[in-house]
Structures are given as C-alpha cells and as structure tokens.
Specification:
Structural class: alpha/beta
CATH class of one domain: Mainly Alpha
Helix content: 40-55%
Radius of gyration: 21 Å
CATH architecture of one domain: Orthogonal Bundle
CATH topology of one domain: Arc Repressor Mutant, subunit A
Distance between the termini: 45 Å
Number of strands: 7
Bound molecules: S-adenosylmethionine
Strand order of the largest sheet: 6-5-4-7
C-alpha cells in the first residue's frame, strides 16, 4: 500500500524531475500534500527505503534516489512500445477488490473442505470469499475498477511484449494467425501485429472488456472477438495466454482448439 501511495502521490516522478536525486525539501515542494500532512511524509519515505520497494537513500544526508524498480514507475515520455510507466500496473493490483481479497487469504487457508461460511463454497478463491463473486463478474459491475485493471495490465503488456518481439521474435516464424485469449485491452496483440504484420492477430475477451477496448483503442489491424474462452476459442495457428493461468486453472477442461 506504501508503493500504491507513492505512485498516487507521484513520488517516483518527483525524484526523477529533481534530477534523479531528491532531498526531503525537494519532495515536500513537489508532492500534492497539504502543510498539516507534510510532517508525515518522511515516515512514508523511510518505509519505501527500508523495504527497498522503490527508493534508496544516501547515507551522508537524506537524499532519495530511484531504484531500477521505481524508475519503471516514473511518468515520463520515455516510452517502450507505448508504455511510459508501470505505475498503472501498481494501481491495477491494489484496487479495493484486490485488497479486500488479500485480507481473506488466511481465512481461505484455514477453510475446511466442507465449510461454506464466508459466503462461498470451500476451495473457492479468497476473492470470492471477500466479494461473493469472481473477479471478472466484479469488474463487469464496476467499470471504474475494470478500466483501472485493464489500463494496468495493458501497461505491463506493452513493456513485456517489447522484449518478446525484439528478443524472442523467432517464436512467430511460421505463425500466420494468433488469438490472444483473455487478451484484455489488446496491447499484446497490437504489439505483435505491429512487429509482425504477417500474423493475423485477434483478441478474445468478455463483452464488457471488448466493448470498452473498441471505444478506447485504435484497432491497429487487430480483430476483437466477444466470447467465453470456456466455450470457444477461435481456430488459429497460435494461442497466447498471458496472465490467464488462474482463469484457466479453474477450468481444467478449457477447450483449446489450435487447428
Ligand atoms: C489477468 S487479465 C489478463 C489480460 C491480458 N492477457 C494481459 O496480460 O494484459 C485476464 C483476462 O481474462 C479475461 N477473461 C476472464 N474470464 C474469461 C472468459 N471466460 N472468457 C474470455 N476472457 C476471460 C478477463 O476479462 C481479463 O481481461
């Protein structure tokens, strides 16, 4: 949560704009915190340094520097494959849905096989214990969180796919078509289509996800398909499953058809 707070206050970006090293007065001047809260900022900074989550501190005087991790959270114009920052990814993993589910983790571990207390049958995921439904249904009902989630995953995909297409491009040799199953905002498929125009790329996802992608993003030659991966996966030479394993594991009979 400290990292989420740092992202929301723009602390990595403030350190970057101060030339890569910021004193406490530099930060106090840069972050949007009212006077009566400023005395508490050093505690947050200390926590970020001690956990090595985002910042390092010079020994001689208190100067904060970006670490390799927090450099990825700077909101600047240096784009890798359209991804300027992984800050949206941090926010996508700390939504009220995610935090609520995390608070039920120990309950989930302790739950007996026949214990259906907590609003969910045994062996369901902590998310369902907390929210009474699965993540995709919860996001269908909350477009604000859904957008935050898919913006974050999209940022992650743009960064990751930059490495995939530049360093592992050989895996696309001989692939004429690819479907990104549970492809979210289509960032992965668009990156592949741009790098390898001979690959016909499609994205399969749930109706509310495809509906908002089509409104927000240029298609870039990618086809967006509404569907349920548990029922049908369009035939293609290759199937991409990125960050979908938990969804697939819930349905071991997932009918992958890659003819
Ligand atoms: C964790 S996200 C990953 C998104 C994308 N692959 C990425 O890495 O950015 C999982 C995706 O699977 C989609 N999804 C979940 N259940 C699905 C289903 N039954 N059929 C199709 N898509 C589904 C969700 O809407 C979400 O976009």
């Amino acid at each position: 949560m400290a990292l989420q707070c740092a992202v929301e206050l723009g602390i990595p970006t403030a350190v970057h704009r101060a030339g890569g090293a910021a004193s406490l007065p530099d930060l106090l001047a840069a972050v949007p915190v009212p006077e009566h809260r400023k005395p508490y900022l050093p505690r947050l900074m200390r926590f970020l340094v001690v956990t090595a989550a985002a910042l390092s501190e010079d020994n001689s005087r208190v100067v904060y520097r970006l670490t390799p991790l927090s450099r990825l959270l700077v909101d600047d114009d240096v784009a890798v494959n359209g991804c300027t920052s992984l800050a949206p990814f941090v926010l996508s993993q700390t939504t009220r849905f995610h935090v609520g589910a995390a608070l039920r983790l120990s309950d989930w571990f302790k739950q007996g096989a026949d214990d259906d207390s907590g609003g969910a049958p045994a062996a369901e995921m902590p998310f369902r214990m907390a929210h009474g439904t699965d993540p995709w249904d919860a996001m269908r009902r909350d477009p604000v969180v859904s957008k935050m989630f898919h913006d974050g995953l999209g940022a992650d995909s743009r960064l990751a796919l930059d490495f995939v297409v530049n360093q592992c491009g050989a895996v696309f040799d001989g692939v004429g078509s690819l479907v990104d199953v549970g492809g979210g905002d289509g960032s992965s498929a668009r990156a592949i289509a741009r790098a390898f125009p001979h690959v016909k790329c499609s994205v399969l996802d749930l109706p509310h996800v495809i509906g908002s992608v089509v409104v927000q993003q240029p298609s870039d030659g990618v086809e967006y398909i509404v569907g349920d991966m548990m029922s049908f996966i369009p035939p293609s030479d290759a199937v991409l499953l990125k960050v979908c394993c938990s969804t697939c594991h819930q349905h071991p009979s997932l009918p992958v058809n890659s003819e």
